[in-house]
Write a structure and sequence with these properties.
Layout: E1 3-12, E2 15-21, E3 26-31, H1 37-47, E4 62-70, H2 76-83, E5 94-101, E6 106-110, E7 113-115, H3 117-124, E8 128-132, H4 133-139, H5 142-153, H6 155-183, H7 185-205, H8 211-223, H9 225-240, H10 256-268, H11 273-302, H12 307-327, H13 333-351, H14 355-400, E9 407-414, E10 425-432, E11 440-441, H15 442-445, H16 448-463, E12 470-474, H17 482-495, E13 500-504, H18 508-511, E14 516-525, E15 530-537, H19 540-552, H20 558-578
Parallel strand pairs: 3-13, 3-14, 8-12, 12-13
Antiparallel strand pairs: 1-2, 1-4, 4-5, 5-6, 6-7, 9-10, 10-11, 14-15
Helix pairs in contact: 4-16, 5-14, 6-14, 7-12, 7-13, 8-12, 9-11, 10-11, 12-13, 14-16, 16-17, 17-20, 19-20
């Protein structure tokens, strides 16, 4: 299992510069109100691609967060990191970093490489899950409750839902296209006429890709045929002499081939191995020179100085140039003309308002709607099948959170005649707070503390099957106390058997279950005139004092410390029983 072993936060909120050593299992973060506990969650969220808020940056002008991850070799994160150019550190860990300026500029680094923030956010989907008080508000919305139910229904249900979304989008697109064509028949027909005229002009010339460049080359060659022939002949004679006898060899200098042959024979006659090898190199050079000379002879033979051919090439080039000016983007040439024609043919299909085209489009729309109806029914059935099991699991968690009388259920109202992007159902999570009470939407039927426990129960139900290795809970125990608080600690400790769990809490009953206990302290920095924050790990008596402070507000109270020791003993016993 992967985990975050180290977190460094600089210049964020009340935190100047602190480094947290995070152990496996359950880590709790406690401290006085306003000390900066939530900055730990803010730092984690920022590190893993969350939105950068320049208002959190201290007066220093730049905030930074760094984290060190240890991951198993088979983790898919490694492949994605490698794709981004990231390298593991010397100890095999993966280092992430994020900086934010006071102006809002943000940068991310992964394994020593600068990467887009989106890359880190993509990795976070498989690494980190943050559960906070905002999630309580989010999960009180019917749309989020529907998503929660879909997620609980499992991967096969989600695959059907994805197919439904695709089918729904296709149906809506076809229906909108049909309405558009019917409502704008005259305008579309006129636009189609313009496209057809352009295609007729292009088809009449029938340009080929790159033909304009080829015609430019041919025109230059035909215009300069005499000069090109003279240059090629001069070069050929320099290489092999006047092999035809047509140019008169008297008085001409020695050609390159003859000179190379004389040198090659002189060296080959030597007994010295070095000279013999050089003679072979010269023999190869003679072959190359002869080949070039042959190509020059073919070039001269192919040169055409026919004025009629030149006129033909110029006319063809003018016709293509006219098309390029009219239909191609700047610099695209004949290839751009062909691209316009291809796009025009595609657009003609979309502008077709003939009876045949409209009938075919209507048939496609109806087929798509039939698929939407079929998949919508399957999605609805999957939700209904999962609803009872989901509600039962949440109910079992609530029973352990001192809400034994509460009953949760799902209301699913289906309207096959009005399919939406997410299906045909309106989903709502209902709760009856006590026997005889009518089920009501959970955000209306629960008090603040009860709502916290309901949402935490939902989070715990999901978290047990969540594949991410690191889970963060930000004061989801707000409004909870007494026995329920201890049960929250017990459940978080249970999650920590399979995940690295980081919890920001104000409850001693929760903190007592921690494997690692971090305390956030704030002290006035009189020199700078601002509040500084430090984070330290506490153990043994220091931990007892912190729990006593959380219980009574008095760290040195004998009664508070006795209660703290009792909490630690109860938590240890509960963990042993669970193991």
């Amino acid at each position: 299992m992967g985990r975050l072993t180290e977190l460094r936060i600089r210049g964020l909120g009340a935190i100047d510069d602190v480094t947290l050593e995070l152990g496996p299992g359950l880590t709790v973060v406690t401290g006085e109100t306003g000390a900066g506990k939530t900055m730990v969650v803010t730092g984690l969220t920022l590190l893993f691609g969350g939105r950068a808020d320049p208002g959190r940056v201290r007066a220093s002008g730049r905030a930074g967060v760094e984290g060190r991850l240890t991951l198993p070799a088979e983790s898919p994160v490694w492949q994605r990191a490698a794709d981004a150019g990231a390298d593991p550190d010397e100890d095999g860990s993966l280092i992430l970093a994020r900086t934010v300026s006071a102006e809002g500029r943000s940068r991310a680094h992964l394994g020593g490489r600068s990467v887009p923030v989106g890359v880190v956010a993509e990795l976070a989907e498989g690494l980190l899950a943050v559960h906070g008080q905002s999630d309580q508000l989010r999960l009180s919305r019917p749309a989020e409750q529907r998503r929660a139910l879909d997620r609980y229904a499992g991967p096969e249900h989600l695959q059907v839902l994805d197919r439904y979304r695709e089918a729904h989008a296709r149906w809506r697109q076809l229906a909108a296209d049909l309405d558009r064509r019917r409502g704008q028949a005259r305008e579309l027909a006129q636009a189609a006429d313009v496209l057809r005229h352009g295609l007729e002009e292009i088809d009449a010339v029938a340009p080929q890709p790159g033909e304009d460049e080829e015609l430019d080359t041919q025109a230059r060659r035909l215009s300069d045929a005499d000069a090109l022939r003279a240059a090629a002949d001069e070069a050929r004679m320099a290489l092999v002499g006047d092999v035809t006898g047509e140019m008169g060899a008297e008085g001409l200098p020695q050609d390159a081939t003859a000179s190379l042959a004389i040198a090659e024979r002189a060296l080959a006659a030597s007994d010295d191995p070095t000279l013999v090898l050089l003679a072979q190199d010269l023999a190869d050079a003679v072959a190359v020179v002869s080949d070039v000379a042959g190509q020059l002879a073919s070039y001269v033979a192919d040169l055409d100085a026919d004025p009629a051919r030149l006129a033909e090439v110029l006319d063809r080039r003018a016709a293509i140039t006219a098309l390029v000016r009219k239909y191609a983007d700047a610099g695209a040439g004949a290839t751009g003309v062909l691209a316009w024609a291809e796009d025009a043919r595609r657009r003609l299909d979309e502008l077709d308002v003939s009876d045949e085209a409209l009938e075919a489009l209507a048939a496609a729309r109806d087929t798509a709607r039939a698929e939407v109806d079929d998949l919508g029914a399957r999605v609805s059935a999957g939700r209904r099948a999962a609803a009872d099991g989901f509600a039962a699991e949440v109910g079992r968690e609530l029973a352990g959170l001192a809400m034994k009388s509460a009953r949760v259920s799902f209301s699913i109202d289906s309207d096959p005649g009005a399919p939406g992007p997410e299906g045909i159902d309106e989903v709502a999570l209902l709760m009856a707070a006590h026997p005889g009470a009518p089920p009501r939407p959970v955000h209306k039927g629960a008090s603040g503390g009860e709502l916290s426990r309901v949402m935490l129960a939902i989070e715990v139900v999901f978290a047990g099957a969540d594949p991410v290795p690191v889970m963060v809970f930000d004061e989801v125990d707000a409004g909870v106390g007494g026995q329920a608080a201890g049960e929250i600690g017990r459940r978080l400790a249970r999650l920590a058997r399979d995940h690295q769990v980081v919890v920001v809490t104000h409850l001693a009953q929760v903190a007592a279950f921690a494997d690692t206990h971090l305390v956030v302290d704030k002290t006035p920095d009189t020199g700078a005139g601002v509040t500084a924050t430090d984070i330290r790990a506490v153990e043994d008596e220091d931990r007892v004092r912190e729990l006593a402070r959380m219980l009574s507000g008095l760290a040195d109270s004998d009664t508070g410390q006795a209660h703290a020791r009792e909490l630690l003993a109860v938590a240890a016993s509960a963990r042993d029983e669970a193991a």
